[in-house]
Hints:
Elements: H1 9-21, H2 25-41, E1 47-52, E2 55-61, E3 71-82, E4 87-94, E5 101-106, E6 115-117, E7 125-132, E8 139-146, E9 159-164, H3 165-174, H4 184-195, E10 211-217, E11 220-226, E12 230-234, E13 240-243, E14 247-253, E15 259-266, E16 271-278, H5 282-291, E17 295-296, H6 317-396
Parallel strand pairs: 14-17
Antiparallel strand pairs: 1-2, 3-4, 3-9, 4-5, 5-6, 7-8, 8-9, 10-11, 11-12, 12-13, 14-15, 15-16
Amino acid sequence: xxxxxxLPESLKSEILKISKQNKDALDxxxxxxxxxxxDNNNNKRRKLTISNENSDSKDYYDIDKIExxxxxxxxxxxxxxxxxxxxxxxxxSISPITQTPILSISKSNDIxxxxxxxxxxxxxxxxxxxxxxxxxxxxxxxxxxxxxNLNNTFNNEPIVLTMNKDQINKQLIDEKLIKEGEDFKNYIxxxxxxxxxxxxxxxGVKFKNSLYVAAHRGTKEGLLYLLPNHILFGxxxxxxxxxxKDIESFSYSSITRVTFNVTIxxxxxxxxxxxxxxxxxxxxxxxxxxxxxxxxNSMSEELKAKPMSKGNxxxxxxxxxxxxxxxxxxxxGQDQDQEEDSDDEEADANFETVxxxxxxxxxxxxxxxxxxxxxEEDExxxEEDEDREIELNSDDD
Length: 397
């Protein structure tokens, strides 16, 4: 009679009443109970119990395939970067178990999906948006961060995929889901909202301070997106997402003429540094930080230069960067001075050469003039001597 205790009081009393009138009735009820229980356990969609970080447990179901009749809309042959790298379909459909919207990723509707997210609500969906791709005007990223999927596959890593605008537009227009000239992003946002979560708008006229820059996280090169309420770095794993509410401060370091570093400090004490950011992006990042009213800790005691001693040769990051910048500027100035001095010396040398040539020319001319005058005097003396000889000879005669 164990099943009797699991029944509501009203039903329990009715069964006991019938059993008193017919002793075999209780056995029939027991068989009926066992049959219904076994039938439920043998259902094709196996019931699973998965631990939930926010509660003791929750019931989920495996879904073997996506029935065409349950599909709300589907985007085909999308290039996924996370959690797996391949071309797959992104599908919004109705769960055959809960009759609520679910999101799935699969190669085909006839096979078991790679990922199924059954909880499309604010408690599970952390953040979702469209993001621009550098130098690819016709393509955009779609990102979706969530806490858990069905069976916790792929460690619940975020969904990142690339959408070709022309391809998506053509597909949705052909399926008469949008009209010619309509933005497909608006349609997807509406469907997501109806399903229970929001795809945020992060770029556009309303969000002039949103930007993205190339940066490094250790040895990994990626894109740092500075968004209205989040900061995202991707898209090589691990993809990192910060909520603005969790950020304590920003600080700059390793500043040179070409690049600089940015460190994001979180309220829980974590620090994440992004390096090799182009100096041309400094003004935009600084404007973003000031507009969002984040604290700038670049001049904190930790980053300032400390007194030098035998036991303490540590210098703050900013002080070191300033010294490097000053040294580079001084070296550049010295190089320029040396070039100017070299030019002056060369000019002086040319001038002295000209002067020497002119002086030599003057001396030579004076010597020539002096020699001519001496020759003329000698000729006059010779003529006088000849005249004297003629006179003497005349007297002798």
